[in-house]
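Entry for flavin-adenine dinucleotide complex. Fields follow.
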Amino acid sequence: MKFSSIAVISLGLLASNHFADAETIHTKVAILGGGVSGISAALNLTLNGMDDFVMVEARDILGGRAQNTKVGNTTIELGCNWVQGLGSNPINLLRQKYDLKTAVTDYGDLTYIDENGKKINGTAKNNEYADRYSKVEEMASLRAKSNQVDFSGRTGLSLAGWFAKTPIEQSIEYFGYDWEMGETPEVSSSVFAALNDEASYSSDFGPDSDGDLMNIDPRGFRHIFLEEAKRVFKKNDKRLKLNTKVKTVEYSKDKVTIHTDKDTIIADYAISTFSVGVLQHRDVQWKPEMPDWKLEGIFGFHLATYTKIFLNFPKQFWDETQFTLYGNPTSRGLYSVWENMNAKGFFPTGGKDNIFMVTVTQDYSYRVESMSDDEVKKELMGVLRKMYGDDIPEPTDMVFPRWHSDPLFRGSYSNWPIGELDQHHENMKAPLHNRVFFAGEATSKRYYGFLQGAWITGGEIAAKVNQCIKHKCPVSTYYPTLYNAKAKGSIIKREVVV
Ligand SMILES: Cc1cc2nc3c(=O)[nH]c(=O)nc-3n(C[C@H](O)[C@H](O)[C@H](O)COP(=O)(O)OP(=O)(O)OC[C@H]3O[C@@H](n4cnc5c(N)ncnc54)[C@H](O)[C@@H]3O)c2cc1C
């Protein structure tokens, strides 16, 4: 990596008679973004003897969507929270390596409160939902194996005989579906969801992979990634450019020029790990504009928004179970899934912090993001009073992130939408001129949405770039034109209805 300095005079600084030095940095590889995928890419290059790279990250800390903060004295996760899929899942191996403190989540440990604020027994309905959804997964897996067309989550649930009618049934469905996928069954793929689930929980990481663990470590979930980053970057490492925002990526057949808000980086190769939401929102400029086949792949994918709203109360007034489901009559699933952070085995109880957390997704997330904190708090207290009566205290703190509005993320994790073909996905992640490569959770066909998707794609893409540097770039696939199934369908044998 070489640095050269060009003295530039910015208008503001000229007035105060100062000069700023903008550097031009020459490097082999520029890693754009320092989330889990970027860290994994940097580690892979390092372990394979390539240290001529620069990492550019807009925030003042690595980790990306692995973010935590304090509510009272408790460290809570604003982003990823669960190791999803155990066994040899690389995230599970990191959990073990750094002895991360985790808790077992019991999704059946539930209290049900109906629309009148009355506790009811919803176990039978919840079990029914689980059975019906298993059928959806079975149908979807069979279709995947025989290369049949996809169907939406809603179609699948209806085919399996699940019809949510009452508010509590809708909340059961919301908990089982949206709370996992981040989006509604109407817009979600069933085939890819089944493959994604199977990959992490049964097929890929060995016989012990079925299960998940919730991080409750006061060091935060990101600790494991920050520790791995220390294997790459030493203190004051000039290759790590924090607080530096990429503005434009200019690419050609020969090189990539990255213009940041501080300097210019000229690289032989770049690895973009920006979220698919950042790519969709045009937060970074691409010169020349990406080709249409690639843009279509990017625009067609979904980055769901999943918002955890943490409320800290002077005392616990809710039930001991891990989760409480409220049948909100206002809107399907709105403010309906509450998690008790005081539950046995979660955070220490008996102290000042009594945290009750509610999750909203997608349109509900956009709505809360557009409201002030006070407005959200007022609305939530209205719901809690319907659930528990008027005699409940006001919260001492409320914290929630605005993932969708944040130009560095634009959402939480990806969800495969109905209508997105395998080939669209290939196009979304295909390199440009074998100079700009794409990694990050959404680019993982098997583990999209999960941390392992981010980690594995970062390593894989770094290995490809290393191959480009040392030998010749591997062949990448893309589809300049996509054809739909109809043409093929018209030549297959049809049954005649008599
Ligand atoms: C609320 C929430 C809950 C989740 N729950 C789980 C879970 O329980 N289990 C699980 O496995 N996964 C979960 N995930 C998903 C998981 O966090 C992600 O898959 C993973 O962190 C994505 O990593 P990444 O490196 O692909 O992307 P990112 O983390 O988005 O990394 C990209 C980086 O690029 C930086 N960047 C963006 N724009 C610019 C720019 N212009 N210039 C410079 N830098 C820029 C960003 O700051 C970021 O650091 C959750 C995510 C969220 C938000």
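NOTE: Residues 5-19 have pLDDT under 50 and may be disordered.
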